[in-house]
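Handout, section B. The chain below has 125 residues.
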Amino acid sequence: MIESWVINDDSPVPVSSAGVVEALRSRIDSAQLETWLTSSSGRLLAFVTNAERAMVVLLEGEGDPGEHAVAPGTAGSSDGFVLFNGQGDEYPDEDTVPIREAFRLVEHIVGTGSWPADARWVVDR
């Protein structure tokens, strides 16, 4: 069984892989740069963006350090990652991916439950 995913602060109706990118874009357009999704099996998927790059983190549950998408060898850092609490974060570009790639990763995870075969990610556990 493939798990279903809901956006934590939206409707309890599951979001499809076909609709998750549109939902994320809509949230970005309304200045909601941090999005958490919860799966029917209790896993969590975090998407935090500055509208150019995004951090994508997949966790097995609350308290799990998880695993996150990376862009190895990318120099520099980017700021403007604004969290729900108003805190603005800066992350090394190596620990984030371009937003189009982030959308692709989230769409795949929501659709299949796992990273795409060609994705670059590291385990933080």
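Note. DSSP finds two helices and nine strands in the chain. Compare this with the example in section A.
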